[in-house]
Amino acid sequence: MHKWIDSHCHYDFDVFSSVRQQHWQWCQQQGIQALLIPGITLAQSQRLADFCRHQPWLWSVGLHPYFMAQHRAGEVEQLAGLIRPGCVAIGEFGLDYVVARSDHERHLQWQLFDQQLALAQQLKLPIILHVRKAHDQVAQRLRQRQFSYGGVVHAFTGSEQQAKAYLDCGLHLGLGGAFTHVRAQRLRRTVKALPLSAWLLETDAPDMAPAFIHRDQLPANSPAMIPLYGQLLAHLVSLPLAQIALQTTETFGTVFAQNPFDISGLN
Questions:
Q1: What pTM value is reported for the model?
Q2: What Rg do the C-alpha atoms of the chain give, in angstroms?
Q3: Residue 266 included in any domain
Q4: Which of 129, 50, 119 is nearest to 86 (CA)?
Q5: Does the bond joining 219 to the residue before it have cis omega, within 30 degrees of 0?
Q6: Per the structure, how many domains does the chain have?
Q7: In this predicted model, what pLDDT tens digit does every residue of 202-220 receive, in sequence order?
Q8: Alpha-carbon distance 13 to 30, whole Å?
Q9: Is the pLDDT of residue 52 over 50?
Q10: Helix H segments across the chain?
Q11: Is 162 inside any structural domain?
Q12: What confidence score (pLDDT) does residue 257 get?
């Protein structure tokens, strides 16, 4: 059986509560070895160490731009106190110019972005980025700050040029449900144009559902989708499924082993 890792999954969300234990057993039967649960608020980040204990689940700590109304001054400094074995990155954080509708809102997102990027640099940790309608600006900031600890641009749907700009900054790209939709022709061309090592497979579960899942299903999306994404990716790039599984798992280890915590045992 091929081994897989879901590199971005909100498995702690309430939608999984009633089915999580049984569902995870099923995921393991499909070859899912591990997953990474990103932080999105301070309170949720504080819970992740206990939530992931005794499971092959890694996590990160971060303040997501969706929840600007919940974030308070000084919370980035508090994130630093949450770093312990199993916490492998800072994020998810970033810029979302879809929800930021004014210059002031964008300014606040930039402040939080810069603070978390500085924290990652201080701690020498990779980053997990959420970026919408701001890829060029984010890549430019990464170059300006000479960020060199890697990470992933979650749910990437930008252009090939934008993808290469991130790769030049040492980041990788998250690939999930978006590329399964008929309208995702540009994304599929980008996937084919880049080396397989550029990509990490992710679900963003329960969000970012693939084209073949009904949204009224519970859960609408889950780590169990990863082997299916692997098969679709193998077909798209004309490579054996075994190579897809091996490369994406090795890439995950490479990205999230650039920190004090050894996750090589998950590969």
A1: 0.94
A2: 17
A3: no
A4: 50
A5: yes
A6: 1
A7: 999 999 989 987 555 556 6
A8: 21
A9: yes
A10: 20-29, 42-52, 75-80, 103-123, 135-144, 160-168, 185-193, 226-237, 241-255
A11: yes
A12: 77
Pairing of strands 32-37, 57-61: parallel
The C-alpha angle 63, 82, 20, rounded to 5 degrees, equals: 75
Report the candidate in 178, 257, 223, 267 with the shortest Cα–Cα distance to residue 6.
223
- Domain of 66, CATH number, reads 3.20.20.140
- Neighbouring CB atoms inside 10 A of 24's CB total 20
Residues 6+ apart with CB under 8 A from 211: 177, 180, 181, 182
Residue 267 lies in a domain: no
Lookup: tokens for 170: 């040492």
Is the link from the previous residue into 105 a cis peptide, with omega within 30 of 0?
no
Q: What number of other Cβ atoms are within 10 A of residue 49's Cβ? A: 16
Which backbone phi and psi does 260 adopt, to 5 degrees?
A: -70, -5
Q: Alpha carbon 230 to chain centroid distance?
A: 16
Q: What is the DSSP letter of 205?
A: T
- Could you tell me the residue range of the domain that residue 209 belongs to? 4-261
- Give residues with Cβ within 8 angstroms of 71, minimum separation 6: 41, 42, 63, 112
Mean pLDDT value of segment 155-172: 98
* Spatial separation of the C-alpha atoms in residues 181 and 211, rounded to whole Å: 5
Q: Does the pLDDT at position 259 exceed 90? A: no
Find where tokens 């490579």 sit.
Answer: 239
- The band of 106, judged by pLDDT with boundaries at 50, 70 and 90, is very high
